[in-house]
Amino acid sequence: MKLAFSTLGVPGLPLTDVLRLATTHGYHGVELRAHPEEPVHPGIGLAERADAVAEFKAAGVEVLGLAGYARVAAPGDDEPVVEEIHRLLDLARDLGAGFVRVFPGAASDQSREEADATAARRLGTAAEYAGDLDVRILLETHDSHRTGADAIRILGPVGHRQVGSLWDVMHTWLGGEQPSETYAALGPYLGYVQVKDIASAEDTTPVALGAGVLPLAECVEVLSRHGWDGWLCWEYEKRWYEAAAPLEELLGTGRDHLARLLNDSA
Fold this sequence. Notes:
Elements: E1 2-6, H1 15-25, E2 29-33, H2 46-59, E3 62-71, H3 78-95, E4 99-103, H4 112-133, E5 136-140, H5 148-158, E6 163-168, H6 169-174, H7 179-186, E7 190-195, H8 216-225, E8 231-234, H9 251-265
Parallel strand pairs: 1-2, 1-8, 2-3, 3-4, 4-5, 5-6, 6-7, 7-8
């Protein structure tokens, strides 16, 4: 498995510094948070995109994927949501990224059936464009669909190879799902896995990998046992927790922890 980290942990940091952290601490790739607060997002022009590609190539680091914010199950018209996904897909194509992350984002007053059908319809529509660009759209286990069992209700009906899953280990665990159960649901659809650690179920403040309560060892063991050989991406949510320790101070020990887990499960 290859290791990456998300720029959500170093909000607003210039790409030069992000890549320095990646190379210094031995990460193979970076997940870019595709938000206007960041240096790379769908609003940048072709020249800026080409510059970003050149920086990543010079550093020998891959652009794993783009963490977008489209909410595919949210109420409203389909067109703005599909257009947002298309813009993310265009940016991913230009950067050489293989994945685009989207959220479920159903509203509390939607029925489960309506939310599932809305998300499946939009993802099915966007899948054709994703196929033309050779980029996969990944539905993250998050918010209204936080478990693998929730996500499969959308992914199954879509039934398109360009639409898959992004397993966020925190949300599936908070949803009461064991790693083996999540993999059983999402394995055929899995794009990559977001690893993290938190203080407790009641306090989701990010902590160093291995210092919290999430079942990271079990997740890695399940993936290894099934021969899965994709990406583990550390999403350290510093952006939302100002009191959390800087990610820069944790990247080295975090990589070492993941390497030990991989070695133990080999």
